[in-house]
Design a protein that fits this description.
heterodimer, A: alpha+beta, PmbA/TldD fold, 2 domains, eight-stranded mixed beta sheet, five-stranded mixed barrel, 24 strands, 22% helix, B: alpha+beta, six-stranded antiparallel beta sheet, six-stranded mixed beta sheet, 11 helices, globular
């Protein structure tokens, strides 16, 4: 963990900020090591290891905010950056309409480390790479005609030190591991993709190398390869119909991310993301009374749950991890909050402020926002309970409006459901809807045995842009009367 | 400590960057080595609800080291630029390259091919901008919106960046650059509008013009009506056109063709759009000129689409090697997903003013910008997304009334097949940071297109 050198510089920066007139200041040191490896077409295409290390000062002066950051770790630079943060805060006051206010938090001295079973940073490099080479080989062996295959992992270690002018002193070490495979096919005027276990880049958790091993990438590689090829000649998804849809666990997690996770960010709801990310239909006047979904829908905000990408000891304002609800029995009941936005609601922060490294300002970010399991049994039970519909698996396309109401998603693959059985494979499935209507049509969520904690390591927000790592637990769920197969 | 000393955007400078790169090349244990330094001082003043709420400055510098041993390649990035940090990162890259499995498709680092001079993209006045300068510009925008009973949200930004590239085959490239930009969303109780301005010179940044455009349009955008989804003729403002050019540009690459997901795969020389011409021009003095790519290779000016006919795609060294094509000098930082891109796209102007395009439309939809656009089907360039911040019905050649936002699901290159008119004025637009740099720019006109598929609507 970061130690006395960083702590001394942090204290110096806090003193400088106070001397310059800051009424509040905090300092974050962050050292992040990341290794990304990608095997393409069974050859090692990319090995990229990075080590970034720096600090930032956030200050309130004249009732307004300033922030400055630097990778230069000297006493002079600590003074310069602290003074600059205060100067920026004073400039911000030029447009101030009211003083920045922070909800109370008890300052603590604490440490936190992600519990892991296998430390990937102590393994040999070739041991890690071999998993990808084996998975890629298995894909090509199953389907030699695949146009492109990819197998990738990312390992991550972030050491953080947070000190505030209120007396907080918190050191944390967070580990993450993610892995995935992808098979792409081209032909018949089509280009198709299948990925596993999640969509796009990787599924990732706060975990050690055990997370890469749990998915059996090699064992699943032939199935993914076969499906990618089969999609080229699969039946086109029916166009512009209404039917029942069952979403896979990994698709429901993205649905939750986009249509619940973002609209419950209180900064959006209060308008401070209006020009870029947008606002939210979940306005404060709806808190506690608005029907977000059916009674089957329970969505938790939980930064304590093992493995989630939003799992930590304390957020980047020194607020402890917490458990709560965003949606309970279908009613909207909770936001993701910072100390400042919580104060505007007259409540305390639930600890969701996180920054993308040392050079960026903490923002409200999803922690682990999860659709909690229901009682519909297994996926096969849910399909057996469905007379007519489509099962859609693994995201391919996602889009939602700037208030998070109108969405349209596509998945990599679908299957028709007829009389309780999964039947014909469908290509290019899409579905669209309006958020509260869609969640209102949810009539079944699978049980705990189908629930998986997924991770999205690519959530964009903020200006300058930041990439957030968010966790989402989900189980397959069924939605009725959904518009499917939108085409232009 | 003086204010200027703590706030100025200090550059590292060419001699110091050369020295860092030389230290890497000297310490690297391999057959070939490359050092790239990206240094930047990014300042962004963000406002919402009529007041500044986020105001940041960060000084950052990353050194990326690539070491090659035969067909074994590894990369290490660090922001420790002191001698010990450089040595440790170079050793790490050398060790990784030793243990990495071979990549038989790797073609070696590119050699020195000479670099033409491009117009300077560095303006001292932008580098000297202070937090107070940015706050004053933000206040000007907030005040303009408030005077029209609107709320302001957006940002004012100044950026200084330096890019230095060296490799053991003799490549050396260095370019400093500045940008300043301002963005305003003017929001009323029932409708909003958006405007943006970009300039290399902060002193020439048209803050007042940005305010005028957004405020006037937002005032007209209040109380939008329902218009049923369907296929409409459209007039697209440059902000929306940029999205189309960006998506299509991302497919005009050697890798997209190699992987069979480009709409021009096996169609070079064939008509793929309507009568539009798209060029990538690294020497365009009205854009963000830079004459070399992220491997230090000379960037060519390329006509990608000429009057609707697909003519060329861009290449980096590795894709060019694998596919037997010429390297056009369009490399991004080495990465497996998008190793090259056209970074200076210009959709050539037409002869009509934006108002002419509206006047010639009998019944159409005017779109200010698109939002949350994503591929539905890359090969067919089908994209879905929303309209945002100013959507209007055009009737009998005039903007008739604001309409609620649409969702669209549309093939972008097929939309261009129905090009009815091209604006004569080009707007300079930028996409935001990529790989820690302001890498790309677009110069695009307004467009009038015959058909655009709006497949859904939202409630505002």
């Amino acid at each position: 963990m970061l130690g006395s050198v960083e702590r001394d510089l942090a204290r110096r920066a806090l003193d400088t900020a106070r001397t310059r007139g800051a009424t509040y200041a905090d300092v974050r040191f962050v050292r992040r090591a990341v290794e990304d490896v990608l095997v393409k077409n069974a050859h090692l295409e990319n090995v990229d290891r990075s080590d970034t290390y720096g600090f930032s000062v956030r200050a309130i002066a004249d009732g307004a905010w300033g922030f400055a950051a630097s990778p230069v770790l000297t006493a002079d630079e600590a003074d310069r950056v602290a003074a600059l943060a205060v100067e920026i805060a004073r400039a911000s006051a030029l447009t101030k309409r009211e003083d920045a206010r922070l909800a109370d938090v008890t300052p603590v001295t604490a440490t936190y480390t992600t519990p892991i079973e296998i430390d990937p940073w102590t393994m040999r490099f070739d041991e890690r790479v071999q998993l990808l080479l084996d998975a890629a080989t298995a894909m090509h062996k199953a389907q030699p005609g695949l146009r492109t295959t990819r197998a990738t992992y990312e390992i991550w270690k972030e050491e953080k030190l947070f000190l505030s002018s209120e007396g907080a002193d918190i050191a944390q070490t967070l580990y993450e591991t993610g892995a995935s495979i992808a098979a792409e096919s081209v032909g018949n005027g089509e280009q198709q993709i299948r990925t596993y276990p999640g969509s796009g880049g990787r599924s990732q958790n706060t975990a050690g190398w055990e997370y890469a091993l749990r998915w059996d990438l090699v064992g699943n590689a032939p199935r993914i390869a076969d499906e990618a090829v089969a999609l080229l000649t699969a039946k086109q998804c029916p166009q512009d119909i209404r039917t029942s849809v069952i979403l896979s666990s990994n698709q429901l997690m993205l649905q939750c991310h986009e249509s619940c996770g973002h609209p419950i960010e209180l900064d959006r709801a209060l308008g401070t993301e209006a020009a870029f990310a947008g606002t939210s239909f979940l306005t404060p006047d709806r808190l506690g009374s608005f029907r977000y979904g059916s009674e089957q829908v329970n969505i938790a905000i939980d930064s304590t749950r093992k493995g989630g990408l939003g799992t930590f000891g304390y957020d980047d304002e020194g607020v402890p991890a917490s458990e709560g609800w965003a949606v309970k029995d279908g009613i909207f009941v909770g936001y993701l909050m910072s100390r400042e936005t919580a104060a505007s609601l007259g409540t305390g922060s639930n600890g969701t402020m996180r920054a993308d490294g040392w050079a960026r300002l903490p923002l409200i970010r999803m922690t682990n926002v999860s659709v909690m399991p229901g009682s519909a049994g297994t996926l096969e039970d849910l399909i057996a309970d469905t007379d007519d519909g489509i099962y859609m698996d693994t995201n391919r396309s996602w889009s939602i409006d700037d208030r998070r109401l109108n969405f349209q998603f596509g998945t990599q693959v679908g299957w028709e459901i007829k009389n309780g059985k999964r039947t014909t494979m469908l290509r290019n499935p899409t579905y669209t809807g309006i958020t509260p209507e869609f969640w209102g049509s949810c009539d079944a969520v699978c049980s705990e045995s189908e629930w998986v904690m997924w991770g999205t390591p690519n959530c964009g927000k903020g200006q300058p842009g930041q990439v957030g790592h968010t966790g989402h637990g989900a189980a397959p769920a069924r939605f009725r009367d959904v518009r499917v197969g939108v085409v232009g | 400590m003086k204010t200027e000393a703590i706030a100025s955007a200090v550059t590292i400078g060419e001699p110091a960057l050369r020295s860092i790169c030389d230290a890497v090349l000297k310490a690297a244990d391999g057959d070939q080595a490359e050092a790239v330094v990206v240094a930047r001082n990014a300042a962004l003043t963000r406002f919402a609800n009529g007041a500044i709420h986020q105001n940041v400055v960060s000084r950052e510098a990353d050194l990326r080291i690539r070491v090659v041993r035969g067909k074994r390649v590894a990369m290490v990035t660090t922001d420790r630029l002191d001698p010990d940090g450089i040595r440790r990162a170079t050793e790490d890259a050398s060790d990784l390259a030793r243990s990495a499995p071979e990549n038989p498709t790797f073609g070696g680092l590119p050699g020195d091919r000479g670099i033409r001079a491009a117009p300077s993209a560095f303006v001292e006045r932008t580098a000297d901008a202070t937090p107070t300068d940015r706050a004053r510009a933000a206040k000007q925008l907030c005040d303009a919106a408030r005077a029209a009973s609107l709320s302001a949200a957006g940002y004012v930004s100044t950026n200084v960046q330096e890019l230095a590239i060296a490799n053991s085959l003799g490549v050396w490239a260095y370019a400093p650059a500045t940008t300043s930009d301002v963005e305003l969303a003017a929001l009323g109780g029932a409708g909003s509008a958006f405007a943006q301005r970009i300039a290399l010179d902060f002193g020439a940044l048209d803050v007042a013009g940005c305010a005028r455009e957004a405020v006037a349009k937002a005032t007209a955008a209040q109380r939008p009506r329902d218009l049923p989804p369907g296929t409409y003729e459209v007039v697209l403002e440059p902000y929306a056109v940029r999205d189309i050019v960006s998506f299509l540009g991302s497919q005009l690459t050697g890798l997209a063709v190699e992987e069979g997901r480009s709409f021009v795969t096996a169609k070079l020389g064939q008509k793929v759009t309507g009568d539009v011409t798209l060029v990538d021009d690294p020497f365009d003095a009205e854009g963000l000129p830079r004459s070399f790519d992220l491997e230090g290779q000379p960037s060519e000016r390329l006509t990608l689409i000429e009057r609707g006919v697909a003519k060329a795609v861009v290449y980096d060294s590795q894709t060019a090697y694998r596919t037997g094509q010429k390297n056009t000098g369009h490399a991004l930082p080495p990465n497996p997903f998008q190793p090259s891109a056209p970074m200076h796209l210009r959709l050539e102007p037409g002869t009509k003013s934006r108002d002419d395009l509206i006047r010639e439309s009998k019944r159409a939809v005017l779109v200010t910008r698109f939002w949350y656009t994503r591929w539905v089907h890359q090969l067919r360039t089908i994209v879905t997304g929303m309209t945002r911040d100013g959507t209007f019905a055009i009737e009998d050649g005039e903007i008739a009334y604001p309409v609620k936002n649409f969702r669209f699901t549309q093939s972008y290159h097929e939309a261009l097949a129905g090009t009815l008119g091209i604006g004569s004025d080009l707007a300079l637009l930028v996409p935001g940071e990529q790989f820690g740099l302001q890498l790309s720019s677009y110069r695009v006109p307004a467009l009038r297109l015959a058909a655009f598929a709006f497949t859904g609507a939202t409630q505002y």
